[in-house]
């Protein structure tokens, strides 16, 4: 391994250090900035992804707050119909494409190479390209506020995040706002595809010695599955966006119903993307939970092979369930029944996962630190989300509940209650690795409890609004429908969540400067990323690690009770 | 919060249960018991606005009834799963919490158990089988229900942002307020709706009568309702369709046979011709109004907007955005954005005199 030493960029760094003294502060700042802009280091790119997503989380969260102010009372005039429609379109599009996916790929970027004992991703430059494409997509989408108008005035997409045809045709959506929407998703979609290819290549070809596929940490396994799924799902979305643009500008008639096109073709395309997309978002959340729950229960994950099989199973089944978003479009009864069955089948591997997590906790010694609190919240909420999902998979119930606030409640239970909770758990968990400092545990608990309370006030209540007939995407409602008080409660919960997220943001920034020094392995964890320093050096590991089990650090800490004696 | 519509029934929840109990409608009681068990939140809504809630838990037609019974079955199963799984999780967390944080002793490591894992795979498979078969039965029962010969046919056309109702056999065209005859359980008189769209996708949803079905351009759908009790049932468009999607409200009047016959007779008449308002009619026929609206028996034959032949027989205008009074009508013609910003009807730029005249004319169209 001595030849590795010569690869290390130490001498060059030394030169830079000595020159730095002679330079002005602004030059140093520029250099620092340039270092981040041109970086191909997976850790820096991972951090960029995460910061970018947190920024948009705050933006889209603010949009949600505006939405909830508008809906707090009936017949409100706080926002006009037009502005409200833009806000809910942007809220949904932002949360899915500019928050959910980039932050989860940010985690992959940062953690996967460290977990498999690699020095970087397989294609570092592609990695940088992917990030900047994603970032450019986000900027393009938000530029529509300035440049999307029919007359150049402020405007933004207002067709809903699923943008059903033919509402997106130029007849019904003049101006350029819809074009910004389509182009932004095409551009960020290419970025996502690049990242997915990169993760797959990295996992297949860069694992350290001894790390067979069945010795990979579940986190990495899940990202392999997610990346495969991403390749299959982003593609139809991108194709559909191109078709939309061809319709709008080149006289195509894919979705142009007035010229014989089919509105349903868009709906199919969108949900062939859209449903697996849910799993593209939720499998990384499982990935995070798979790391945190065992470490904070002090037990190995229960049923590792079953967890792997369940993840792969979910990937395949999820490709065959899209039309459960279409029970109301008038498919035949047999088609409806087929998609009821395929959707319910997803419940089986998902159930296996929940049971395995409970069995992991069972017999352990649970430590209630902030990452674990968020994961426990995730377990309860994901259970409920799964059960309301079963309800919606029952087509006749869906005929009632589809496009109602019940559905809003259900998918926010998945997207916030499961995914955002796991994202927060992951941020608290790997923050010390990335920065070398701990986030405040006291503020973390404030964040958790306020967020949990706000979350339930908001989204539990929404289920009832749906049962009482309130449809989604409405900018206001009549005072005589019995929805007034419930909507006010929902809005109050929204504000509580907003405060919790601000506490998190404060903690996130202040801990960077004032947090306790973390050390290499603050959680007493077991995977390879905790063997290197915090933050890790550019080259991650001075020597290529060698593993003999799924928990190399456990083996190291318990030389007389190693995992590899028991793993099948 | 304790406001009751029209102030007619104080303590609505109780009186409703009593009234329902005296009629044969048991499922409404069950609905409220289930709701009460789920949460007190819907009770808040009930106190707010009595009978007008489009509540799927208070069905009044066969499809909605069947969906509700299925809902109870699914709630029972999912509820049981929740109790068992959340219970196990809670026990695990409480029982296996770390008692002294300083401890360095790790618990015994268990890597899995094939028997246990097999058990919790097989049980969900069985549950899915039961759920699926039950669901499929109801899908076929509702979706493939045979259409009786004497069923009433209505064509529903969705427009941005209003509803057109055509009764082909009766020669009636109206808007936003659907009238159908009551369909008693012992003597069914169902209504079959043919769903079309003139522009973008809409969705027809009146929760107390049936689930929703989309109105899709170039794609004909059907659904059916057989309301068992006369009354007014509220709903609205359930698929985002543009700026004023929120104000694409829907009213279904279920009439007794006599009421319905009278309504049909009136709708089949040509528009009222009152010489006293001839000036207003002239305004209507000479300004752009007639390009979009039809008034039977006049030169106005437009098809883009609602048929106004019997405008005053409807209780709301602008697809439910406001009540149909001459003052509101005048304001609506003067500035549609006042009630519905983004509605496709343009402000007609009429003079005050013309506004008065045309409003007076429209107010005669009983």
List keywords for this structure.
heterodimer; A: 568 residues; Cytochrome C Oxidase, Chain A; 17 helices; 68% helix; 0% strand; B: 366 residues; 4 domains; five-stranded mixed sheet; 10 helices; 39% helix; elongated
Helix amount of chain B: 25-40%
- CATH superfamily membership of chain A: Cytochrome c oxidase-like, subunit I domain
Biggest sheet strand order of chain B reads: 3-2-1-5-8
What do we call the CATH topology of chain A?
Cytochrome C Oxidase, Chain A
Biggest interface and residues each: A-B, 106 and 103 residues
CATH-scheme architecture of chain A: Up-down Bundle
Low-confidence stretches of chain A: 1-14
Count of DSSP H/I helices of chain A: 17
Helix and strand sequence of chain A: HHHHHHHHHHHHHHHHH
Provide the number of structural domains of chain A.
Answer: 1
- Supply the CATH architecture of the largest domain in chain B: Sandwich
User: If you compute it from the alpha carbons, what radius of gyration of chain B comes out, rounded to the nearest whole angstrom?
Assistant: 27 Å
Strand residue content of chain B: 15-25%
**Quaternary class:** heterodimer
**CATH topology descriptor of the largest domain in chain B:** Immunoglobulin-like
Give the total of beta strands of chain A: 0
Mean pLDDT of chain B: 87
The level-1 CATH class of chain A:
Mainly Alpha
What kind of sheet is the major sheet of chain A?
A: none
Q: From the helix content, strand content and strand pairing of chain B, which structural class follows?
A: alpha+beta
Distance between the termini of chain A: 31 Å
